[in-house]
Design goal:
- The chain is 42% helix and 4% strand.
- The chain has 224 residues and is mainly alpha-helical.
- Among the domains are: 48 residues, no CATH class; 90 residues, no CATH class.
Length: 224
């Protein structure tokens, strides 16, 4: 813990104004007038320095495409990836109303927080067909968040045996059942096999992870 060791720390982040109204409000809330540093909203003793706070999206891309990366990467490949995630559109920006290629969002490919992974859909439409099994698995996994199907796929007990009741008296569904967990693993392995037809070395789950899953199922879920 660097705060405990030094008393204070400075975090360098890529936060920018103009990304959203919520982001602007948070930045304003923690900023001190005339000070280059802002307070961190959750870490006491931590300060935040944001060197690109006032950069526009176009400023970011101009910098990335003109200045070589210290690690030797080609940022044109990065721009190409963002272009693919926006259905191939990444025009030269000539005014404030024209969209740039910096509005795509990336994260965990199995994220079920959003209903649709539009970035992955756009990349597939732009020619990355090998990602189709990944999208199909993500969409299948997202469907398990539907409250109407949870009784069929989940247990009402947590792994330590506890039960939770909602404020209106309903059972709160917890972890996936063992049988559904097996089905989920099978679907993942099938997706991996399909992707490997395009990319033979591509791995979604390793043998070490499979051994650990087996160990947990044996010791914690009594899968004899």
């Amino acid at each position: 813990n660097k705060v405990a060791e030094h008393g204070e720390v400075i975090l360098v982040l890529g936060s920018r104004r103009g990304e959203s109204a919520t982001r602007d409000q948070v930045l304003k809330m923690h900023r001190f007038t005339g000070h280059e540093l802002a307070r961190h909203g959750q870490l006491p003793g931590a300060w935040v320095y944001m060197p690109v706070e006032h950069f526009t999206t176009d400023d970011i891309w101009t910098y990335l495409l003109q200045i070589p990366s210290p690690w030797g990467g080609d940022n044109r490949n990065l721009a190409s990836m963002y272009r693919s995630a926006q259905d191939g559109e990444c025009p030269l920006v000539v005014d404030d109303l024209t969209p740039s290629c910096g509005n795509s969002r990336f994260g965990c490919w199995t994220c079920t927080v959003v209903d649709r992974d539009r970035s992955m859909e756009a990349m597939i439409d732009s020619g990355e067909e090998w990602m189709t099994p990944l999208l199909e698995f993500r969409d299948w996994l997202a469907a398990t968040q539907d409250p109407t199907v949870k009784p069929e796929q989940r247990d009402y007990k947590s792994r330590d045996g506890r039960i939770k009741i909602t404020d209106d008296g309903r059972l709160r569904w917890r972890t996936y059942t063992l049988e559904f967990s097996k089905k989920m693993l099978k679907q993942l392995l099938l997706a991996q096999r399909e992707v490997q037809e395009y990319e033979p070395t591509f791995t979604l789950i390793s043998e070490e992870e499979l051994r650990e899953i087996r160990r947990l199922w044996l010791t914690e879920r009594q899968d004899w």
